[in-house]
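Reading a protein record of the kind used here takes only a little practice. To see the layout at work, look at the sequence and tokens printed below.
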Amino acid sequence: MQEEIVQKPVRYRLFDKKHFAIVKGISILIVIFAYMGSRYFNFHYLSPATGIATAVFLLCSGYGLSEAFKYRGSLRHFWESKIIKVWAPSMVKLLLVHGILLKNFFGWMDYYPLALYGWFLNLLFAEYLVFWLLFKFVEDRKLRILGLFGVSALAFLVIRDLPIAEGLFCFPLGVLASQYHWKNKIRALNNKQRAYLSAALLAVAGCAFVLRNMFAEYLLFNAVWMVMKVSLAILLILGVYFLRSFPLLMAFVPVGTISYALYLTYVEVLALLSYRRDWKAVAVVLAILFVVATAFYFGCRLVEYWNRKMRDRNHVHLRGSMR
């Protein structure tokens, strides 16, 4: 009797939600531990890795936004979605922190006039705006991509701040990967080709690491750091896919699912370490962080659900002015 071939279950596919959740989970943990180490334990060696995490989030965002456009065929509800899912949680966080902790309900306006918490969200919304303008008013796919990279190049020439500069091309690169179907090409690679690709990315990052402090001029300095961080971010994303047979990677899915809530809450919760800084305190504070972030996440999901219900019933909601 011929033996039946038992196929291993596919845990996740390239660039699907679980895949991105894993890389986002790893990335937000890098951000949290780098901040905690630098702020409370005088351990600064992880700080440069936050740029890799930022690049991962921007790459995933650009790819996901382009895929959503391809699926829907339009930009309908574009700004409604971004306001409900990204801007509103940021504003709620600022209101809660400044209103409850700092006793100055509108104090955030001096630092975050757009209610976008941190430079990352300001950069992300700038990318959203450029994407919306190009995909709404430009029909040619090549011109859209050139427009995205062109705007990023102009910004790179002007912006001197390294954390912002090194992430400027990540969002357009994610859009490019989606528009030109890089997923199919990567999936078609055999194991040897995957190893060569990974080695090439690691080599590029290694060369950039060696050259990172050789340039005093800010453009070259930022460019070298950008190449290093983006190469490692791509290696992380592809590496998680190439190593998908390891079941432990699935443990990062819930972390990645609430990664945005973790981003909005980790600074205030980790401030509890100001009172005590042993490993037991770290474990307790991290547990509190995940509880707070999970509650924040489900609160945001409840608002999203309410908005969808209102949309389906054709009641008054944000859709009217944001098509």
Residues 279-312 form the longest helix (34 residues). Residues 1-7, 316-323 have pLDDT under 50 and may be disordered. The radius of gyration is 21 Å. The chain is about 70% helix and 0% strand.
